[in-house]
Structure formats: structure tokens, C-alpha cells
Amino acid sequence: MTEVFTSVGRSIPRLEARDKVTGRTEYVHHLRLPRMLYGKIFRSAYPHARIKSVDKSAAEAIEGVFRVVTIDDIRTVIPHPYYGPAFHDQPILADGKTRFSGEPLAVVLAEDPSIAEEAAGLITVEYEEIPAVFDEVEAMTSDVLVHDELKPASTFADLKHLKGRKGTNIALDHKLLRGDPEAGFAKSDFVFEHVFRSQQVMHTPMEPFVSVADVTGDRMTLHTASQGPSFVRIEIARLLGWPENRVRVKVPFLGGGFGGKLYIKLEALVTALSLLVRRPVKISLTMEEQFFMVTRHPCTFRIKSGVNKDGKIIARTCDIAWNGGAYADIGPRVTQKAGFTSAGPYDIENVRIRSSAVYTNRPPAGALRGFGAPQTAWAYERHMDMIAEEMGLDKVEFRRQNLLRDGRPQASGTILVDAAIEKSLDKLLDIMKWNQPFDRGSGRIRRGRGIAVGFKGITSPTTSVAIVNLYADGSCGLFIGTVDMGQGSDTVMAQIAGEVLGFDPTTIKVIHSDTDVTPYDMGTLGSRSTFHMGTAVRLAAEDAKKKLAELAASVGMVPGSNQPISEIFERRYGMRAGNVIGVGSFIPEYQKPDPETGQSLKVTPFWGVGTNGAEVEVDMETCQFTVTKLVNVADIGRPLNPKLALQQLSGAGIMQYGFTTTENMIFKEGQLTNASLADYKIPGLLDMPREWINEFTDSIQHDGPFGGKGAGETTTIALSPAIGNAIADATGVQLMDLPCTAESIFQALKRAKA
Amino acid sequence: MEVAGLRGFDIVEPSSLEEAFGLLGTGDPAVRPMGGGTALMLMMKSELFKPTRLVSLRKLGEPFHGLGESADGKWVRIGALNTFSMLDHSPLMKSHFPIISRTMNTLANLRVRNVASVGGNLAHGDPHLDLPPVWMALDGEVRIVGPSGERVSAVADLYKGYYETTLEEGELITELRVPVKPDWKSSYTKVTTRAAHDWPAIGLAISVQLSGRQIQDLRIVLSAALDKPTRLTAAETVLRGRDIGEALLREAADAATEEVELETDNRGSQEYKTHLLRIYVTRALQDLVSEAAPK
User: Fold this and answer.
1) CB-CB neighbors (< 8 A) of A747 in chain B
2) Helices and strands (H, E) in chain A, number of each type
3) Containing domain of residue A79, as a range?
């Protein structure tokens, strides 16, 4: 039976498109409040140093400076000024010592932001440098300790056992065991072991971080560019020791987030400042300051596989160290969630995974589009090609032979459902014309191609709540905490509500996050909104529809008749009055993995699945290369708005393409040497592959809203190894580290010749 | 509208040279002349330079403006305040120095080119800039005025070191003069190693006077990987007066890579840049020869 839809499945334009292109859209950067002060952050100059003294006098002497604030001042309003989603390890301002170069150490407040900036440049600090550790593998056994003691947040029950642990930089050690890998290696015909590395990169949203806090009476209002307003309220209430209803968090549109604007970023700082001075306080970061806010985890991944002569993978072990930088942020969750899929989308009987979140003296790392999955796929999909190469196996058939299929248990024990892995691979090969002859180039120009398969689990368990409010004139307001940061969630959520209610989605008003008004949502993250909030919206709309029908029946009208909705309200209340409020709340089924074995019958609500293919052209003399074709195929269930879905697939792919070829935070003894967009290179139009193809499979997520599921991360997962594999195919040398650069090919060729 | 990161400073626009010299001659390194200001803005944003006063040259009139051929047609005069876009769109430049508009394609972006000035670019002294090595390869010279009078300098003699020029305090470049050499060919190779749009890992400006496959005379200027744009005179000596061929190109590439010690930075190691120099010197010369004398 083919379902017929009137609202979902159509490529309607974004609801906010006209406002955005005409400059009418609201952003926090525009906000100015009466009596508002601007804060400018003074940052530490050393990656690891004790703070002997802070001299604020020259800054305070500048005319127009309202106040210069350090952690001692913050303590007068927040006695325990440490925050974080997984660990309460991050001080609002550096406390006694600095843990990374660029850490906020003091703030200057002034009515004029340029005065605040000038004064911040006059603060001087006396430091005593202490030994630092930067590499994640070294940090696992180093005597240099970034934190004296682990301080897990009570909100994550599974981290409780870490409380008070001392003498380690390992914040979390995630384990998974299935079968007996050592026995598996022993009986395998071949064993392969490789080490892969991913570099540190950052989110680079066009809209840098910005937050405003405004304390009035006994209420704190935050206007903030956040992907997770509900969490901000919870954490600020905890820091202040206030009930949640005294904290209000409002979020308009975001100019990109990509996982960076999750949890607490500037919010704790502006809250403390506003409480101190009893005035509204705003902090807007510059583009350059974003490098010191949150980044993506560098990682070192040692992967080992036992394979039989016929190509069957018998056993695999994965040892991953995630460089979380100075503060845990959501790193421990990245460690777990990317950890359990780190053996790849393959059906392997014996698997052991050890995935460790490690503290170092680098800027903190957190969530970034893909939540660790792209770093793991770089390893497992390069590893697959290298095994096939060494064994002389066909790279596609080797994968196909081992591919996980629906109905089979993944490494965690969770049975694979609605994961179109093979379908996605087939479509990719078809678009790549894989079975047709390929021009491998000649002379100094060599061409190569590669494919890669990726998958990821989705953060679980998480909750979304939605409210549909039908007003007495028959119009509709949709109250949701999902933040539209460019992905188009307003539009898709309106399409879902419209489908249930029989409304034109463009007439539905989506009310943006305001924790006084909109209900709880865990956050706009990890490809979860379409599935979780989409379901909550569907349930809320169904609830409203049912209540409206009941109301119609109660006044003697036929439910669902073509009489206008306003008529129902007028008959019931004698005038245009009243509301029908539908509520939907959704939490997917979940079973907590066993702490020792990581086994769970339901570890993820659904699977993100994507395949990627690349063709490259390498100048074998200069080693400069061009990606001539990139194909990304994703299983996103039923696309609820195909055009928006393709834009998301494309955007995610471009982002990952930058992380693969151009972007790299380069450190020298803990100092970032390229903290500007002139020297941290994001791909430009000229870097884009000549052919750039994004497609989705014909799939349905059976328990998703109208068959849909998330699409925001899928193309990021296996794009890097597709390019790495194509480079290996063209040049015959294997790149083990990201990014793939001309010089890395040059060095690999040189090693190969030696 | 918040203007982030700008400290208070003065921008003054003198209308005479005397006034300009007065405003500049303070001995304060935070007082600087300004052409288009694009490079200064970058330095100010990264807090490498905190001005107290910027002296804009745009109202200084004739000596800084205009673009035209000399009466005898032997050279082209380019006023220092010409923007890059003005050069790019000039038919005169296109016919005498096609290398310039070819270089413009890879240089910064349209908004910068619309503002950045020829003189400011020359006086800035950043070794990564694309045009100074090109002017050097074209034997360009600059006219300089200062409180103590006027002088002329070869562009090649403008640079002392990393961001260091031979301009004295208060001295201003008023114009650039480039000789017209109809029998010379020139090219600029901007080699980027990360994104297509980046500072060059190496910049290579070459001009040659050819007779068939024989190199009568030439200039090879290397920039970006050194502290200042530098003539590769050893390589020039190897090539001058000889017929282009594979062995000669190898010899020239050897000379080029031996006479300079390149610097390692985020765009590449010394080893890799040296490798690139060897290849691109060879390729650029081959291209110039085959362009002039197709086989």
C-alpha cells in the first residue's frame, strides 16, 4: 500500500527563507538591552601554569571600564563555579591554574565593547609554568595531571563510579566485549594491525558564540545562541541553586551550531557576570576566539583484525584514545557513542573495544557533527582497504561479504533494523559506475577512486516534548525546543504537524525556544530532531486533532467536516475563544549497555547509515591532488522534505571534506599557531570537487515520524576514508593521518621509496 | 551595530605632502601611512598593530594617481594609489603586462582587490604577497618622496627582511614605473598547498627574454618561503645565454634549490617547499619557452 501524503515528502521552501534573505531574522548578536554591559575575555598565555597573581589595575584605570572580574569575584555569587554536562570540571574562569592556552582568565566589563577590549589587553598575569601534556596517547600514562580528581556530574548515572578518582587523565574508559577476540585472532589466517590518527578541527559557525544574561529581581533570563536551551536552564539553575522556573532561556535562530553550541558555553560566565553587577551582560566571541571554546576530538585509533583466507573477518579489536583537551565537555559521551560502533558496519563475531576520553592541555573538545563517528570511520574504512589490498581481495566484495545486515546483532548485541547499509552501497557503486573501466591516468597524473561505508548510533535515551496549540480562529502554533540553526527544522516540524492536522504547513507558526513557554527538549544534536521531536510533534498534533474532534462532537458538529474550525470554538464558547492544546512526549526504548561488555538489546533508537565514494587526481611530482568527484549516499528513512534533506547531506559533506583535506588546528607546545581563518583553511568554492553528488536511498524508518529519521550527520561519517582510499588507489601509498595533504602524500611516497 | 575589536585611533586625510610629512613624522611607530588599508586591517585584527593614527594618502592628488604610458612608450607609470582592480581592468596593463591580470585571479578576493593599493602593497613588506615578486621580475622601480626629498629605488631594493623595507620614516611611495619590454615573457606561479585560496607556500615570478629556445636574459624571483622576495641569481646565471633543455633545467633547478634556504611553516616543511621549488621552476620555464616558441 502506498501512503499518500499532503504535507510531508514535499520540498516546500524553508518557512524563514524570506526573512533570512531580507535581513529580518532575529539573532542574539542583534540584541541590545537597556543598561547592558559588554564583556571581553582575557585569556591565558600558557597551556599549563599556576596563576600567581593577576594585575587588573591598568585595565581598571581605563575610562569607561565598569569592572574587571576574576574567579574570586565569581565565587561571591556562585560558590562552586564549576560546570559541564558530563563532569563538573570546568571553572567559569581559570581557577588557580590554566589548563590550556587561550582559557578565559578574566573579563572586563564596559558599556563600550571597544573599551572592554582595549582594557583586556592591559591585564597582566604572573604565571608559573608547569609541565604540560598534549598528546592523547602520552596523556594516558603521563605523570602530568590535567585535573587532580575526576568530578562526574550526577546527571549521568553511569559515570558515578568515577567520582573522586585521582592520578589519571582518563576521564572515561568505555568497554565493549563480544565473543573472544584473542581466540579469534589465534584461529585467523591473517592478522592486520594499523594505527590511524585524526587531527583537531573546529566547528566554525558563521555566527560565533554569543550570550546575554539579564538578572531582574529573582529571575535570570538568558538570550543565547544555544542548541540546547533546556540543558542550559537545568545547568544554570544547578549552579545558582535556584528552581528551574526562575531561569528562562530564549533562543532565536542560530547561524550554525554543528554541535559546538551545546551544553554550557558562555552561559555560565554571563550569568555570573550579570549577578555580580545586576545589569544585563553580553559576550560575543570573535571568529578567532572560537578556537578556544570547543573543538573536535583528535584521536588515535589502533585497530586490529583477524581475517580468514576467504575474506571473512573473525575478530577485531579497537583501542581508541580521544583527546578531550582540558575539560571533558560531552567528550565522555562521544567516547561511548562513537566507541560502540568503532568496529564498523561489519558482522564480526569477536569484538573488543576500548575507547578512552583523555584530558590534555589543549582547548576542550566536544560534540561535532558525527559525534566521533567520522574519526572512527577514518580508521576502520582505511583499515578495510589496506587489508583488501594486502590480501588481494576486491574492496567491494570484501566489504559486502562482511557487511552487517538487518536482523543481525551489531557489536553491542542490538539487532540491526532499518539500516540500509547494503542498499546504500549498491546505490553508491551505481552512481560511481564502479563496474565500468576507470581511467587511471598516465605520466605524472595518476587517478584513483575509493569507497567507504559508515554508520553510527544515536544518543539515547533522550526526550522531546511538543505542544500544538489550536487557536479559536483555527490557526495553529507549534511550541518546540528544537533550535533551527540552518538545518530547516521549523519547516519539517510544521510539515509533520500539518500532515496530521490537514493544515498547509506554511500557515503553522513555529514558536522558538523559550523555556518559559516551550516544553523540554534534550537538544538539537546528533541527528535526533526529526526522529525524536518529529515523533513528539506527530503525537501532539494527533492529540490536538482528537481533542478537536471531541470538542466538535460536544457541540453537535461532525468531526472532520469541512466547516471551519473557528465555528467549533464559537459554538462551544459563544465567541471566538478558547484553545485546543495537544501534547506529545517521546522517549524511545533503550537498554543501558552492560558496563563491562557494552552489550544491550536496544542501544540506539535508529541507525545513521551513509556511504561515500571519491575519485582523485594526483600530480605525482608535486603530490598536489584534486578530488574530482565525490558521491555521498545516505539512508535517511523517508525524506520528509527532500530538498532540505539534500542540502543537509551536501552541507555535512562539505564540512567533512574540509576536515579531510584542509582544516587542521596546528599546535606548537600547546600554542595554536593558526588561530585565524587566514591560516586555518576552510575549503572554498575552488576546492570543491567538480562533481558533487548527494543522494538518499529509497528507505523507510518504520518507527520514525512518517518513516523519517535524521540526516544531519550521515554524509560526514565515511567521507574521509573514501578520499584516503582513493589517494591510496592513485598513488600506492597509505595515508594514516588526517588531514590528507599534498605534503602527507609527498612524505608517504618518500618513505615508500626508502 | 557593535564594531568589535577596533580601538580608538585617528584617520587623517592630508591634502598636501607637507601636511602628510608633518602628520607622519612623529617618531611613533603606531603612526602609519595608509593606502587601501587592507593589510593594516588584518594586522589590527590580529593585534599585531595598534595604531594611534593612520594617515590616508588618498587626497594627496596627482603624484599618487594616474596610470599611463610614457611619451616614448618605454615604460608605464602606475600611481601608488591605483587599486588592484584598476590594474586588472586597464587595457594598457593588459596589453603590456598580461601577467598582472593573470596574477589577480589568484590574489585575495574581489573586495580586497577593489580597495588594496599598489603602493601600500609594495610598502607592506609581507613576504607572502603576490605582486612584489612580479614587479621585481619586471624590473619595476618606485619613486619615493620624503621630508628630505625624492629618490628612486628598484623594487628589488625595497626589501631588507621580514616585514622590513628600506623606506625611511615619513617616506612614501608615489608611483611605480615598469619598463615595457615587448620581447620578454613573464609568468607568476602561486603554489598553494592546503586550500586553493591560501597564502602561497611559494611564489615564483619569472620573466625571460628569449631568442628561439635560447634564454638571452631572465629574472627569477622567489617569494613566500623566504623572509623577503629574492632573486635566484645562481639559477639565472646557469640559464642566461643557454638553450632550454632538460639537462639545463635540471641544472637550474639544482642551483635554485641550493642558493636559498626555505622556511618551514604551516604551509609546508622546508623539505617539501624545496621539492616544490625544484618542480615549479622547471615547469614555469618550460611553459614560458613553449608559449614563446612552440615546437
Assistant:
1) 272
2) 18, 30
3) 31-132+205-286
Q: How far is A663 from chain B (nearest CA, A)?
A: 8
Cell numbers that stand for B130 in this block: 603576490
Global confidence as pTM? 0.96
User: What residues of chain B lie within 8 A of the CB of A110, using their CB?
Assistant: none
Tell me whether residue A162 is in a domain: no
Give me the number of domains chain A comprises. 3
Check which CATH number belongs to the domain holding A549 and give it. 3.30.365.10
d(CA A322, CA A141): 14
Flag if A687 and B7 touch (Cβ within 8 Å). Answer: no
Contact A652, A715 (CB under 8 A): yes
**pLDDT digit of tens for each residue in chain B (295 aa)?**
344 344 578 999 999 999 999 999 888 999 999 999 999 998 888 888 989 999 999 999 888 999 999 999 999 999 999 999 999 999 999 999 999 999 998 898 999 999 999 999 999 999 999 999 999 999 999 999 999 999 999 999 999 999 999 999 889 999 999 999 999 999 999 999 999 999 999 999 999 999 988 999 999 999 999 999 999 999 999 999 999 999 999 999 999 999 999 999 999 999 999 999 999 999 999 999 988 765 5
Task: Please tell me whether residues A369 and A405 are part of one structural domain.
Answer: yes
**CB atoms B197 and A686 under 8 Å:** yes
Of A291, A392, A385, which Cα lies nearest the Cα of A682?
A: A291
ipTM of the complex: 0.94
- Asked whether residue A227 falls in the same domain as residue A110, the answer is yes
Same domain, A503 and A617: no
A231 with A111, same domain? yes
Residues A537 and A532: their CA atoms lie apart, in Å, by 9
Last residue within a domain, chosen from A286, A309, A339: A286
